[in-house]
## 1
Amino acid sequence: MASLVALSACSSVTSRLPGITSVVTPYKIDILQGNVVTREQAAALQTGMGRDQVRDILGSPLLISVFHADRWDYVFTFRRQGQAPQQRRLTAFFKADLLERFEADELPSEAEFVASLDAGRKFGKVPPLQATEAQLKAFDERNKTTAPVEPAAPVAAPATSYPPLETPGTAR
């Protein structure tokens, strides 16, 4: 019953304060799908390369059509909350298992792509990763023990004794 009252209270607050729904939004994860193809990878492609060589440079294609056996599609999409989705495509065309040509969207360099992953993120102050000498001494002072602790007396062996698993003199 209490949860029903709380739930109805939430709906009445949002109806009275319509701006609150634009401030509080649910978290949505970043969605990265497909093959990331950079400008450097596309520059390494040359006509006449075999399918294996193209796969070594670009990775396995996202789409291979049964109806277009001589065409490989590399598609990349990146969706992040609060930003416009990114989509890039590279299509490789083969003739007799050799690369005839390829068509691509504007591709970023590897450095540009990595920078775009962190764009728009808010990073807090980076904490120091190494303690100073004064901090180490203060830590030692706080955690000093006054006297060594005596180990507890050993627990007595159980009163039951078990017979040996094998009888002496038996052959294996």
## 2
Amino acid sequence: MFSRLHSDIQCILDRDPAARTAWEVLTCYPGLHAVVMHRWAHACWRSGFKWLARFISNFSRWVTGIEIHPGAKLGERVFFDHGMGIVIGETAEIGDGCTVYHGVTLGGTSLYKGEKRHPTLGKNVVIGAGAKVLGGFTVGDGAKVGSNAVVTKPVPAGATAVGNPARIIQEEADVQREATASKMGFSAYGVTQNDDPLSQAMRGLIDNASSQEHQIAMLWQALEKMNANQGNAQGIQMPGDAAKRETFEAEKLNQLVGK
């Protein structure tokens, strides 16, 4: 028990730059308190003491602001960062090394008893603040769910889910997406894109810029062909930095803002 507690404290020290000492984590982190009390509640639940398990769970909710059904399964080194408003359903499973931020719901979409109604998180999954993961599917190892995303279908290992409804972005594309967003001073991470007026405006600007670059490239190509036909003496002097090829990646930027 003490070895597992030490592991829980160390994982918080490793992941939270605001955590300074083990004593501070032990006494002041409600996420740790919720995990410890859930283990007591889960042990009672499995032993058949259902009412006692629910009572401990309810007390933990009152003290920490984190609601975990005693039937839910938690792995090792699970970190509820801030934690307030987290709700985890009865058949949910959280793998080793997961990080879950405040306001997250691991909920169900079925009302039938005995079914797998809540999601399963693989190892080292990160669920952003306010995200809702609803249904009895699996979020793969190392996946990320963006803030305020609403996920209703499986997420592959290593992928990222963003938006409402969530779009699945593969890991290799995720790095490029965030890098491009940073250069533009705009990040769509975890933002609903379908009816966001800012995203619609961005898509319009991207399409317009792409069209203009295409027209400019065609003009330079036409001038170059004219020079070749007329000869250098009579032709128009071509600048060295003339953009005769299109380099504007409209498709990637449209994916960035959710088209």
## 3
Amino acid sequence: MADTLLIRHPASGAETELTITDASIRAAELRRFNIGGEPLATFDPGFTNTAACHSAITYIDGDAGVLEYRGYPIATLAEHSTYLEVAYLLLNGELPTATELTAWEDRITTHRRVPEELKTVLAGFPASAHPMTILMSSVAAFFSFYPDARNFDDPASRSRAIARLIAKMPTLAAYAFRKGRGEAYVAPEDDLGYCANFLHMLFAQPDRPYEEHQRLVRAMEVLFILHADHEQNCSTNAVRSVASSGNDLFTCCSAGIGALHGPLHGGANEAVLKMLREIGSVDRVGEFIEGVKAGRTRMMGFGHRVYKNYDPRAKIIKSSVEDVFEITGVNPLLKIALELERYGLDDEYFVSRRLYPNVDFYSGLIYEALGFPPEMFTVLFAVPRASGWAAQYQEFITDPEQKIARPKQIYTGHSTRDYVPIGARG
């Protein structure tokens, strides 16, 4: 027998049973109730309890602190896989065989370079341009160079667009980074892996070739794996919403970059570093904590919309911090961060509110240690998220249930009014 929800409206006497599937009801079924001449609807700003799709890509149990890609725990993938292996998993549903992985890596390598004409566009940005602005504009421009991306119903065309996006994101990010530093672009190196090539394009110099330290490359791989996807967040919702009107992958992911650029989504790790610097020293942490409790300031990097437990990504990043600092030297802000974490895990104020460190708490420390300025932090989020966006895009456009996004509104403005000629308006 199907599980159902009985709803009765006493004022009208209307009553109906709604079928419960996957702990949800179909919102459209509420229209059976007529309330004051209007069909009943739900009001849910921010989609805090509204499911917009079925998805088989990423699973999160926020209460338990669980994150899985296609059923694989994030910690297992971070320990054993490369980023491109995880990207293949997100897109195809299964981990690749050795032969499949080699073919996938070769395909990505083939598409690393960006069109020469696009370099001219990049040159037109001012040196002060934010790298996320450059990244967003460049990804949107890809449709001009690869118009076959609009043929997304063709699996071959769709697969080609996805490979191009994932392959070129590090190249664009490196170009944006070097432009801000007034340095010449560095072309991709075909004999380097995905993350090693990215670091090479970022930091190589004509008189001082960049030698990729394998532990730093591995740290970048781990960070990329952790940021590859995260279910139906703001930027993923933007990608899916833009896709709903029939857009190509590049246009949709440009929208995702725009959403990620917002400080409430992608900029939290920069805010953590700013907070740590404002605290200044370990002996001032207690004073800062009292300010948080009194509502005078905020604890950045703690708490999450989904996780009501320790963010599983934060645990993994914390271990990567130690690996990176063994090579780059310890950032003095780490001691402050560790003391803040101690309060967060032990102090009743934070424990009762289930405010645990999230992925942004330690990631900024790693990025800074690797030599990135704060304005690049969100770019380093966007590059690996391209694979998740591509997987979500692919799932959306092949889902027969989906239709163009058109949220309902509750109108609160004037009712019909008579027009008053301009000369008679008081």
## 4
Amino acid sequence: MALYEHVFLARQDVSSQQVEALVDQYKGVIEANGGKVGRIEHWGLKSLTYRINKNRKAHYALMDIDAPSDAVKEMERQMRFNEDILRFMTVSVDAHEEGPSAMLQKRDRDDRPRGGDRDRGDRGDRGDRGDRGPRRPREDRE
């Protein structure tokens, strides 16, 4: 059987319990067609980059699937008919990741580069620039 990662977005006005019910429903479809679902992650309600069907936010959910392609096709077919599902994407993977996904890992604020700590490249230190004299009037500059 093939390994897949499946992410779907549910409408913002759907409750968290209804999102869990959707996950259980599609997990049942996979299992009924001879597959199994491993890790399930709820990423919560997040803002969308652009509006989808007048929704500015969506509930995100991730499922690790080990199933034949027919089971995944059937699940995707049923998702197309569900009005609560805004978007979905299934990706074939070589192996499932261990531990939490990148979306659930908490980045420490101290690990991020700050404005003054960025690498300046080949510029180096400019040193003392000395007296550059007065500026010329604007109309003289090119």
